[in-house]
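Progress note, sequence design subtask.
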Protein backbone atom coordinates (compact mmCIF):
# COMPACT_ATOMS: atom_id res chain seq x y z
CA UNK A 1 0.00 0.00 0.00
CA UNK A 2 1.55 3.37 -1.01
CA UNK A 3 2.54 5.83 1.68
CA UNK A 4 0.21 8.82 2.20
CA UNK A 5 1.02 11.95 0.20
CA UNK A 6 3.19 14.49 2.02
CA UNK A 7 2.03 18.10 2.24
CA UNK A 8 4.05 21.10 3.34
CA UNK A 9 3.32 24.40 5.02
CA UNK A 10 5.59 27.32 5.88
CA UNK A 11 4.76 30.21 8.21
CA UNK A 12 7.06 33.11 8.95
CA UNK A 13 7.19 36.28 11.03
CA UNK A 14 9.71 38.99 11.87
CA UNK A 15 10.19 39.79 15.55
CA UNK A 16 11.62 42.92 17.12
CA UNK A 17 13.65 40.95 19.66
CA UNK A 18 16.94 39.00 19.66
CA UNK A 19 16.91 35.43 18.40
CA UNK A 20 18.14 33.95 21.68
CA UNK A 21 15.10 35.34 23.50
CA UNK A 22 12.79 33.80 20.93
CA UNK A 23 14.65 30.49 21.00
CA UNK A 24 14.16 30.33 24.77
CA UNK A 25 10.39 30.56 24.31
CA UNK A 26 10.41 27.75 21.76
CA UNK A 27 12.78 25.67 23.89
CA UNK A 28 10.73 25.87 27.09
CA UNK A 29 7.86 23.63 26.00
CA UNK A 30 6.57 23.13 29.55
CA UNK A 31 5.51 26.79 29.53
CA UNK A 32 3.62 26.58 26.24
CA UNK A 33 0.17 26.38 27.87
CA UNK A 34 0.87 29.84 29.30
CA UNK A 35 2.35 31.17 26.05
CA UNK A 36 0.45 29.49 23.19
CA UNK A 37 -3.31 29.90 22.94
CA UNK A 38 -3.97 26.44 21.42
CA UNK A 39 -1.77 24.47 23.87
CA UNK A 40 -3.60 22.99 26.86
CA UNK A 41 -0.90 20.90 28.52
CA UNK A 42 2.62 19.57 27.89
CA UNK A 43 4.37 16.68 29.62
CA UNK A 44 8.13 16.87 28.98
CA UNK A 45 10.75 14.12 29.31
CA UNK A 46 14.40 14.98 28.69
CA UNK A 47 16.17 12.27 26.71
CA UNK A 48 19.59 13.92 26.67
CA UNK A 49 21.08 17.40 26.39
CA UNK A 50 19.98 17.68 22.78
CA UNK A 51 16.65 15.86 22.60
CA UNK A 52 13.36 15.47 24.44
CA UNK A 53 9.99 13.82 24.17
CA UNK A 54 6.81 15.86 24.56
CA UNK A 55 3.26 14.69 25.17
CA UNK A 56 1.05 17.54 23.99
CA UNK A 57 -2.64 18.27 24.39
CA UNK A 58 -3.91 21.16 22.26
CA UNK A 59 -6.96 22.45 20.46
CA UNK A 60 -7.16 22.18 16.67
CA UNK A 61 -10.16 23.41 14.70
CA UNK A 62 -12.16 23.46 17.92
CA UNK A 63 -11.27 19.86 18.84
CA UNK A 64 -8.89 18.63 21.55
CA UNK A 65 -6.05 16.54 20.14
CA UNK A 66 -3.20 14.67 21.83
CA UNK A 67 0.09 13.54 20.33
CA UNK A 68 3.66 12.61 21.27
CA UNK A 69 6.61 14.37 19.63
CA UNK A 70 10.37 13.90 19.62
CA UNK A 71 12.36 17.15 19.44
CA UNK A 72 16.00 17.67 18.45
CA UNK A 73 17.46 20.88 19.90
CA UNK A 74 20.15 22.94 18.22
CA UNK A 75 20.82 26.12 20.22
CA UNK A 76 23.94 27.01 18.21
CA UNK A 77 22.02 26.71 14.94
CA UNK A 78 18.97 28.33 16.54
CA UNK A 79 16.60 25.63 15.39
CA UNK A 80 14.36 22.91 16.84
CA UNK A 81 13.31 19.92 14.74
CA UNK A 82 10.26 17.87 15.71
CA UNK A 83 8.57 14.67 14.61
CA UNK A 84 5.36 13.20 15.93
CA UNK A 85 5.96 9.65 17.17
CA UNK A 86 2.29 9.10 18.05
CA UNK A 87 -0.20 11.04 15.94
CA UNK A 88 -3.85 11.89 16.51
CA UNK A 89 -6.17 11.04 13.59
CA UNK A 90 -6.72 12.28 10.96
CA UNK A 91 -2.96 13.00 11.07
CA UNK A 92 -0.90 10.06 9.80
CA UNK A 93 2.47 11.82 10.03
CA UNK A 94 3.69 15.24 11.12
CA UNK A 95 7.17 16.72 11.33
CA UNK A 96 8.76 20.11 11.02
CA UNK A 97 11.25 22.65 12.27
CA UNK A 98 11.43 26.00 14.04
CA UNK A 99 14.23 28.07 12.42
CA UNK A 100 15.55 31.43 13.59
CA UNK A 101 17.61 33.89 11.55
CA UNK A 102 19.25 37.02 12.91
CA UNK A 103 18.31 40.35 11.32
CA UNK A 104 20.00 43.75 11.68
CA UNK A 105 19.21 45.85 14.72
CA UNK A 106 18.77 43.01 17.19
CA UNK A 107 15.75 41.64 15.36
CA UNK A 108 15.13 38.14 14.01
CA UNK A 109 13.03 36.12 11.61
CA UNK A 110 11.19 33.00 12.83
CA UNK A 111 10.07 30.37 10.33
CA UNK A 112 7.91 27.37 11.19
CA UNK A 113 7.99 24.45 8.75
CA UNK A 114 5.49 21.57 8.70
CA UNK A 115 5.39 18.36 6.64
CA UNK A 116 2.30 16.24 7.16
CA UNK A 117 0.18 13.43 5.75
CA UNK A 118 -3.44 12.43 6.31
CA UNK A 119 -4.76 8.97 7.10
CA UNK A 120 -5.67 7.25 3.80
CA UNK A 121 -5.12 10.53 1.94
CA UNK A 122 -8.77 11.50 2.36
CA UNK A 123 -9.21 14.99 0.83
CA UNK A 124 -11.46 16.18 3.67
CA UNK A 125 -8.80 15.16 6.19
CA UNK A 126 -6.04 16.88 4.24
CA UNK A 127 -8.16 20.04 4.29
CA UNK A 128 -8.81 19.64 8.05
CA UNK A 129 -5.10 19.28 8.82
CA UNK A 130 -4.15 22.14 6.49
CA UNK A 131 -6.65 24.46 8.17
CA UNK A 132 -5.64 23.43 11.69
CA UNK A 133 -1.92 23.76 10.92
CA UNK A 134 -2.39 27.18 9.36
CA UNK A 135 -4.60 28.49 12.17
CA UNK A 136 -2.44 27.19 15.02
CA UNK A 137 0.83 28.21 13.36
CA UNK A 138 -0.36 31.77 12.82
CA UNK A 139 -1.59 31.95 16.41
CA UNK A 140 1.62 30.53 17.87
CA UNK A 141 3.84 32.85 15.85
CA UNK A 142 1.73 35.82 16.93
CA UNK A 143 1.93 34.66 20.56
CA UNK A 144 5.72 34.31 20.38
CA UNK A 145 6.12 37.68 18.68
CA UNK A 146 4.02 39.44 21.34
CA UNK A 147 5.82 37.71 24.21
CA UNK A 148 9.32 38.31 22.87
CA UNK A 149 8.69 41.96 22.01
CA UNK A 150 7.10 42.70 25.39
CA UNK A 151 9.45 40.63 27.56
CA UNK A 152 8.86 41.34 31.25
CA UNK A 153 5.93 43.68 30.63
CA UNK A 154 3.42 41.36 32.29
CA UNK A 155 5.35 40.99 35.56
CA UNK A 156 2.49 42.65 37.43
CA UNK A 157 -0.18 40.78 35.49
CA UNK A 158 0.97 37.15 35.68
CA UNK A 159 0.81 35.43 39.07
CA UNK A 160 0.39 32.01 40.64
CA UNK A 161 -1.07 30.80 43.91
CA UNK A 162 -2.44 27.67 45.52
CA UNK A 163 -4.86 26.52 48.21
CA UNK A 164 -4.65 23.22 50.08
CA UNK A 165 -6.69 21.01 52.38
CA UNK A 166 -5.63 18.02 54.48
CA UNK A 167 -7.93 15.05 54.03
CA UNK A 168 -8.02 11.80 56.02
CA UNK A 169 -9.64 9.48 53.51
CA UNK A 170 -8.71 7.18 50.61
CA UNK A 171 -7.05 9.07 47.76
CA UNK A 172 -9.40 7.40 45.28
CA UNK A 173 -12.41 9.01 46.96
CA UNK A 174 -10.89 12.49 46.77
CA UNK A 175 -9.83 12.01 43.17
CA UNK A 176 -13.31 10.78 42.23
CA UNK A 177 -14.85 13.97 43.63
CA UNK A 178 -12.49 16.15 41.58
CA UNK A 179 -12.73 14.04 38.42
CA UNK A 180 -16.53 13.71 38.43
CA UNK A 181 -17.05 17.34 37.47
CA UNK A 182 -20.36 16.53 35.84
CA UNK A 183 -21.80 16.08 39.36
CA UNK A 184 -20.53 19.43 40.65
CA UNK A 185 -23.82 21.33 40.22
CA UNK A 186 -25.32 18.95 42.80
CA UNK A 187 -22.26 19.06 45.05
CA UNK A 188 -20.88 22.61 44.84
CA UNK A 189 -23.15 25.55 45.73
CA UNK A 190 -21.16 28.00 43.60
CA UNK A 191 -21.62 25.90 40.41
CA UNK A 192 -25.05 26.54 38.92
CA UNK A 193 -24.53 24.63 35.64
CA UNK A 194 -21.89 22.44 34.06
CA UNK A 195 -21.87 20.79 30.64
CA UNK A 196 -19.25 18.06 30.30
CA UNK A 197 -18.05 16.00 27.35
CA UNK A 198 -15.18 13.49 27.19
CA UNK A 199 -13.91 13.44 23.59
CA UNK A 200 -11.15 10.93 24.40
CA UNK A 201 -9.82 8.92 27.30
CA UNK A 202 -8.70 11.20 30.11
CA UNK A 203 -9.78 14.41 28.38
CA UNK A 204 -12.73 16.48 29.58
CA UNK A 205 -14.19 19.58 27.93
CA UNK A 206 -16.47 21.56 30.21
CA UNK A 207 -18.52 24.72 30.19
CA UNK A 208 -19.19 25.86 33.75
CA UNK A 209 -21.39 28.61 35.13
CA UNK A 210 -20.33 29.80 38.59
CA UNK A 211 -22.26 32.07 40.92
CA UNK A 212 -20.45 34.85 42.80
CA UNK A 213 -21.35 36.13 46.28
CA UNK A 214 -23.16 39.11 44.75
CA UNK A 215 -25.38 36.78 42.73
CA UNK A 216 -23.72 37.45 39.39
CA UNK A 217 -22.84 34.48 37.19
CA UNK A 218 -19.73 33.86 35.11
CA UNK A 219 -19.24 31.31 32.35
CA UNK A 220 -15.91 29.62 31.70
CA UNK A 221 -14.83 26.94 29.23
CA UNK A 222 -12.04 24.57 30.17
CA UNK A 223 -10.16 21.56 28.88
CA UNK A 224 -9.04 19.13 31.58
CA UNK A 225 -6.51 16.31 31.26
CA UNK A 226 -6.87 13.63 33.93
CA UNK A 227 -4.04 11.45 35.25
CA UNK A 228 -5.74 9.00 37.66
CA UNK A 229 -2.57 6.98 38.23
CA UNK A 230 -0.78 10.14 39.37
CA UNK A 231 -3.80 11.52 41.26
CA UNK A 232 -3.78 14.85 39.44
CA UNK A 233 -5.86 16.80 36.95
CA UNK A 234 -4.49 19.68 34.88
CA UNK A 235 -6.61 22.18 33.01
CA UNK A 236 -6.68 25.31 30.94
CA UNK A 237 -9.57 27.70 30.52
CA UNK A 238 -10.15 28.27 26.82
CA UNK A 239 -12.86 30.80 27.64
CA UNK A 240 -11.93 33.12 30.51
CA UNK A 241 -13.86 35.81 32.44
CA UNK A 242 -13.26 39.40 31.22
CA UNK A 243 -10.68 40.22 33.89
CA UNK A 244 -8.35 37.37 32.79
CA UNK A 245 -6.53 36.47 29.59
CA UNK A 246 -5.07 33.23 30.97
CA UNK A 247 -6.02 30.67 33.60
CA UNK A 248 -4.27 27.32 33.93
CA UNK A 249 -4.37 25.07 36.95
CA UNK A 250 -3.86 21.71 38.56
CA UNK A 251 -5.59 19.58 41.18
CA UNK A 252 -3.14 17.26 42.93
CA UNK A 253 -3.27 14.73 45.77
CA UNK A 254 -0.17 13.81 47.76
CA UNK A 255 0.13 11.41 50.68
CA UNK A 256 2.12 13.13 53.45
CA UNK A 257 2.09 10.15 55.81
CA UNK A 258 -0.31 12.07 58.04
CA UNK A 259 -3.22 12.47 55.65
CA UNK A 260 -3.57 13.60 52.06
CA UNK A 261 -2.51 17.07 50.99
CA UNK A 262 -5.03 18.09 48.32
CA UNK A 263 -3.91 21.18 46.43
CA UNK A 264 -5.49 23.48 43.88
CA UNK A 265 -2.86 25.47 41.96
CA UNK A 266 -3.60 28.39 39.63
CA UNK A 267 -1.64 30.55 37.19
CA UNK A 268 -3.50 33.63 35.96
CA UNK A 269 -2.75 36.57 33.72
CA UNK A 270 -4.80 39.72 34.29
CA UNK A 271 -6.45 41.44 31.34
CA UNK A 272 -4.99 44.90 31.89
CA UNK A 273 -7.30 46.61 29.38
CA UNK A 274 -10.38 45.40 31.28
CA UNK A 275 -9.35 46.79 34.68
CA UNK A 276 -10.85 50.31 34.36
CA UNK A 277 -14.22 49.09 33.11
CA UNK A 278 -14.59 46.34 35.70
CA UNK A 279 -12.87 47.82 38.75
CA UNK A 280 -12.91 51.55 38.08
CA UNK A 281 -10.65 54.15 36.51
CA UNK A 282 -8.30 54.33 39.51
CA UNK A 283 -7.90 50.57 39.93
CA UNK A 284 -4.46 49.02 39.54
CA UNK A 285 -3.10 45.64 38.51
CA UNK A 286 -2.65 44.87 42.21
CA UNK A 287 -6.36 45.54 42.76
CA UNK A 288 -7.21 43.17 39.91
CA UNK A 289 -4.92 40.46 41.28
CA UNK A 290 -6.55 40.77 44.68
CA UNK A 291 -10.05 40.55 43.19
CA UNK A 292 -9.20 37.50 41.11
CA UNK A 293 -7.29 35.84 43.95
CA UNK A 294 -10.29 36.22 46.25
CA UNK A 295 -12.81 34.96 43.69
CA UNK A 296 -10.83 32.05 42.25
CA UNK A 297 -9.27 31.10 45.57
CA UNK A 298 -12.65 31.28 47.27
CA UNK A 299 -14.12 28.81 44.80
CA UNK A 300 -11.09 26.54 45.15
CA UNK A 301 -11.25 26.60 48.94
CA UNK A 302 -14.96 25.79 48.82
CA UNK A 303 -14.34 22.89 46.43
CA UNK A 304 -11.51 21.54 48.58
CA UNK A 305 -13.63 21.74 51.74
CA UNK A 306 -16.50 19.89 50.08
CA UNK A 307 -14.12 17.30 48.62
CA UNK A 308 -12.85 16.70 52.16
CA UNK A 309 -16.38 16.33 53.51
CA UNK A 310 -17.35 13.99 50.67
CA UNK A 311 -14.27 11.77 50.95
CA UNK A 312 -14.32 11.56 54.74
CA UNK A 313 -18.03 10.71 54.89
CA UNK A 314 -18.79 7.08 55.81
CA UNK A 315 -20.36 6.36 52.39
CA UNK A 316 -17.08 7.19 50.66
CA UNK A 317 -15.09 4.58 52.59
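Output:
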Amino acid sequence: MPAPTSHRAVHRTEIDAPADRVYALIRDAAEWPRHFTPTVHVERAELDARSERLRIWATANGEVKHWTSHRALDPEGQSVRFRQEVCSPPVAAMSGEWVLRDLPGGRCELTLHHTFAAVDDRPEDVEWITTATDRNSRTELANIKALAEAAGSDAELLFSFEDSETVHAPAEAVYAFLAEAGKWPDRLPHVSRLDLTEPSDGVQVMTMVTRANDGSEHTTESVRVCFPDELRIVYKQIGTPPLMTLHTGEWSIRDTGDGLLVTSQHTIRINESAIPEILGADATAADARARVRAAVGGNSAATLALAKRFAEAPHAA
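The CA atoms of residues 121 and 201 lie 26 Å apart. Work on this subtask will continue into the next period as scheduled.
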